[in-house]
Amino acid sequence: MTLPSFSLILVGVLLNAAAQLLLKAGTNAMPLGLRLAIEPHILAGLACYVVSVVVWIVALSRVPVSIAYPMLSIGYVVNALAAWYLLGEAVTPMRLAGIGIIVLGVFIVARS
Predict the structure, then answer these.
(1) Which of 7, 27, 38, 101 is the most exposed place for a label (fewest CB within 10 A)?
(2) What is the mean pLDDT of residues 31-56?
(3) Residue 11 vs residues 6, 26, 30, 36, 53: alpha-carbon distances, Å
(4) Contact present, 112 and 71 (Cβ < 8 Å)
């Protein structure tokens, strides 16, 4: 996999992770209801999703799906660490072990 192709995948994954975190921040900002549809974090999260889909389509045009799709697992790592840092969510030893396994798996797939 070339650096530009990996960069596209990574940007797509990071945008997707940002979308998840923004949506969570939006749901923390107010209770569920119609007003939630215009909450700024929710709108920003949806925008990140839209851009991530465009980036993902471009990435798929350059990388086999059997290589690209497993790279989405990087999002689990990014989200767990960002949620711990930004939202104060717990990262238990079991989660850290899972994150380590995911990183190893992504590394193996990327090298194949």
Answers:
(1) 38
(2) 90
(3) 9, 22, 29, 27, 11
(4) no
